[in-house]
Amino acid sequence: MSASPPAAASPGRPTEADLLAFVRRTAADAGLVTSLPLDPEGRTWIRLEGPGGSEAWLIGWPPGSGTGWHDHGGSHGAFATAAGRLTEQSLAAQLPTEGWKSLELADGVDRERLLSGGTGRAFGPHHVHQVFNASSELHAVSVHAYYPPLPMMRRYSRSGQVLRLEQVEWAEEWA
Fold first, then answer.
1. Considering the entire predicted model, what is its pTM?
2. Which listed CATH number (2.60.120.10, 3.30.750.24, 1.10.10.1800, 3.40.30.10) goes with 16-94+101-174?
3. Res 94: pLDDT
4. What is the largest distance, in Å, between two alpha-carbon atoms of the chain?
5. I need a surface site. Which of 64, 88, 121, 152 has the fewest CB within 10 A?
6. How would residue 33 be classed by pLDDT, with cut points 50, 70 and 90?
7. Is 95 exposed, middle or buried, given 0-12, 13-18 or 19+ CB atoms closer than 10 A?
């Protein structure tokens, strides 16, 4: 199945290409990247002003940390690695957004990308993935942007080819 087409350009609404350009440009800002406090025990972050009203974050990833499987509640997004290296595992299939608790995934839907300093990617509103720092020694830092700002995130567990919806987190809960 092919990837979602980029969002159509609308006045004031950033496209996936706009978000990707922003995260790449921001990841190249050495002063900003080095200003992020790093914690050996957990991820750290700074909220940024994204383009066109998007939500953006600078995130520090200690060795071995990750997100677990999740989506972005219908938002388009992009991220770029500013330091270190991140691994993204994703599904190359559009999942239904409502009405299920467990899905059996077909063979061949798994994708994996290694993203080192300066490398980024954009994704559409139905993207399901997990991102992690596989290093046992080095922190990674990345920049993320989402439009519209994240209304919610769905968190999943995965066992073999079975993906289970475990939790829905709403933006109000993060405040």
1. 0.90
2. 2.60.120.10
3. 86
4. 45
5. 64
6. very high
7. middle
